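TL;DR need structure tokens for one chain.
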Amino acid sequence: LQPILYFRSSCLLSAFQLLVLFGLAHLALTWAADRCDWRWGLGTLAGIAALGTLGSGFASALASVALASWRLVRERDASASVQRFLLLTLGVNLALVVVGFALVAPAPHHAAMRAHSLFTFLRGFGRVFAWPETNPLVGIAFVLPFVAVLAAGSRRRRLEKPDAMFGAVLAWYGAQAIALALARGGEPWPFPPRYHDLLALGLVLGLVCLLRLFAALRGPRTMLAGGLVLAGWLVVVGHGWHARFTEVRVNQLLEQRAALQVAQVNAVRAYLTSGNRTTLVDEPATRFLHQDTNLLADLLDNAGIRAHLPPAVRFPLRFEPEATE
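>> reply
TL;DR here they are.
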């Protein structure tokens, strides 16, 4: 239903919706049964369709490769039919990973947004799991339930079908978080709204992980400690949600946007007057106009574009004295 609900939204937003839809459908249908039936075939088609959404569309295939590999190692005494199913699933999804990785298109105009160091990657990774908060340290704490659930499942000899499915979804979301941190780790500002559907799914998965860990606790003291952790998680998430989506926050964003537009106008006007590109480079606000300031300057140098610039940045009229009789 997601593509239908978002049919009138932008193509980029639809791509994010389809990424979630096809990725989860790929995992759910592929691992619905330990045999290559019609559901497995539909799941493989969903995995192929996910490759056409975004660059991280092969994450569901990567999660399937990880789950199939883990089961082949752990379930060496499984029946021959299950072994064939796991081997075929591993081979098909490994091919999807290779094809998906080869289809990732270069985006040089996004170079400034990418993580260029381990620090910026970890900062972006923490911000993915911290959402709707923006402090990366909160995200490092929020990722611990994911790690705990995956570690608990990996120690088991066999996994029930729901546990294996949930582990595959967690691995898929982890791969998406890594891709997002690599792609936008260089940005100090919050993620754009088009990422919120994916980030909200991570919020739901984090809550489910906490509830699963809480259900496994025994004893009043451990249950009390677990309840305090769960309550703290809810308080932090509620604070982040209130700070990001309330009217006060919206007004703050509008004020920031107004100041940002003034800085952009001043920088563009200064460049058109002087022709000095450092006036664009030295102003961080111009990154919102274009990530590459050199390309922005090339666009502003285009005569056809200059003819349609708004009056605030257009060239002033040149008046010169003319000799008369």
